[in-house]
Design goal:
Elements lengths: L8 E5 L4 H12 L3 E6 L2 H15 L3 E5 L5 H15 L4 E4 L14 H29 L2 E6 L12 H21 L4 E8 L5 H14 L3 H11 L8 H12 L10 E4 L8
Parallel strand pairs: 1-2, 1-4, 2-3, 4-5, 5-6, 6-7
Helix pairs in contact: 1-2, 1-8, 3-4, 4-5, 6-7
């Protein structure tokens, strides 16, 4: 299936590992020009080099803290100069730590808002004018199944990521007239470095092993396994394509069916 992504200018944030990296690689395989950013330069550059080698796509990588609006703006302008256009922006950031409510400090609340909400604001503000210029664009956020079903001990994620859903709906309403579609992807338990951290926390608290936690999560999921980053990337690519041209303002779960609601 031709997704029509060849030659598109694509930004993928937090793409040095996990779902972000899988997404950057998937776009590169489709022939898109891919700009990657993350906070850890060494890991980012290694990921970009590997994707460049494996796909022969044009890949640009720059160390960026997505909580820094000026840094995000500079990065987007550099990408626009290099690619000539920005068509797709995948807003992504590492999840906040697992904690119970009373143990969370005010500083940690501010950090979670900056990392998981304001980062989306910064990216959207920077890329929207470029998309408006061409009357075509896709903004896709990556959150979590927690926007539909709160996850125990992930109070920060449960609260802050829900705000992203409100922003996505608002942007979809405001910029649909410009040919810009805005959607959210909400993964369930996906085999990433982030999930390893969460499994470690759960294992320590429960006096068990991370492997036992993984098995428990898989057993709770109707498909009886964890998701893979590439499977989330496939959904993101579809939303970025012309095949999803009438879909906007939506949160689409990629959770193996674990969300119990209708």
């Amino acid at each position: 299936m031709d997704l029509g992504l060849k030659g598109r200018g694509v930004i993928v944030a937090a793409s040095s590992q996990g779902i972000g990296r899988a997404t950057a690689q998937a776009f590169a395989r489709e022939g898109a020009q891919v700009a990657m950013c993350a906070r850890t330069e060494k890991t980012l550059l290694e990921a970009a080099d590997k994707i460049r080698t494996n796909t022969e796509a044009e890949v640009y990588a720059e160390k960026v803290d997505v909580t820094d609006s000026a840094a995000v703006q500079h990065f987007v302008e550099q990408v626009a100069k290099r690619f000539g256009r920005i068509d797709v922006c995948v807003a992504n950031a590492g999840g906040p730590p697992a904690k119970n409510f009373l143990s969370i400090s005010t500083e940690e609340w501010h950090k979670a808002v900056d990392t998981n909400f304001m980062s989306v604001v910064h990216l959207a503000k920077a890329v929207l004018p470029h998309m408006q210029r061409h009357q075509w664009g896709r903004i896709i956020t990556i959150t979590s199944v927690s926007v539909k079903q709160p996850v125990a001990e992930l109070v920060l994620s449960n609260a802050v990521r829900a705000a992203v859903v409100g922003l996505v709906k608002s942007l979809s309403n405001e910029f649909g007239k410009d040919g810009i579609l805005v959607n959210n992807v909400a993964p369930g338990y996906t085999a990433t470095e982030r999930l390893q951290e969460l499994a470690g926390v759960r294992a320590l608290a429960g006096g068990t092993s991370a492997e036992a936690i993984y098995k428990k999560w898989a057993a709770e999921t109707p498909v009886r396994r964890l998701g893979q980053p590439g499977e989330i990337a496939d959904l993101i690519l579809w939303l970025a394509s012309e095949r999803a041209a009438y879909i906007t303002g939506q949160t689409i779960l990629a959770d193996g069916g674990i969300y119990p609601g209708l």
